[in-house]
Amino acid sequence: MLAIVAALSLNNLEAAMEELNCAIKDLGARGIQVFTNVNGRPLDDPQFEPLFEAMAAYDLPIWMHPARTADTSDYESEPQSRFELWWCFGWPYDTSIAMARLVFSGLFERYPSIKILTHHLGGMIPYFDERIGAGLAVLGSRTTDEDYSEVLSSLKRPHLEYFKMFFGDTAMFGGVIGLKSGVEFFGCDHVVFSTDAPFAPIEKTIAALEQLELTDADKKQIYRRNAEKLMNISFD
Amino acid sequence: MLAIVAALSLNNLEAAMEELNCAIKDLGARGIQVFTNVNGRPLDDPQFEPLFEAMAAYDLPIWMHPARTADTSDYESEPQSRFELWWCFGWPYDTSIAMARLVFSGLFERYPSIKILTHHLGGMIPYFDERIGAGLAVLGSRTTDEDYSEVLSSLKRPHLEYFKMFFGDTAMFGGVIGLKSGVEFFGCDHVVFSTDAPFAPIEKTIAALEQLELTDADKKQIYRRNAEKLMNISFD
Question: I need a labelling partner for A223 at 20 to 30 A (CA). Which of A207, A209, B19, B183 fits?
Answer without folding.
Answer: B183
